[in-house]
Write the structure tokens for this entry.
Amino acid sequence: RWGTFGQVSLGYVISNQDFFKKAAPWVDQLKFRASFGLLGANNVNPTAYGYFQQYNVKTGSSGGAVFNEGERGNGVAPTALPNPYATWDHKFETDYGIDAAFLKSRLSVTLDYFWTHGYDMLAQTSAAVPFLVGNTAPVENFASANNFGTEVTITWRDHINEDWGYNVTAFYGW
């Protein structure tokens, strides 16, 4: 299976504009950016191939068929019920950010806000499957989840001399 998922990103370096250079000469770089995209994932364990019937080989004491006075033979057992209609997990992701540099680019600051909306996510249903089936219900695309947060990174870069420099970075995420 395969899928196509579109994404787009935009960025604007306002510090390259002449009017900005005159208005704020102490700002070395100021960039605004935004990205939007639809993502898909099909490798959500244990459902990576949930649309196929899969089997495990059972040997000896691990669960093969019982013959002749309790002796166990080799056998094959289905691992889970398949769902041929199972598709990708879908996620719509957005990110808004600002990158800035000051003091001859020795001080840099990055601010990000992100939001992810997951939908049609693969999950195990709680529906009961009759005991005689001998297996669990198949996975289905019905779950959803949201994730959002902010990240701030502040970095100071400087040189002691021509051969030695250092970086100090602080990071905060929520």
Observations:
- Strands lie at 7-13, 27-41, 54-58, 66-67, 71-72, 75-80, 89-102, 107-124, 139-159, 165-173.
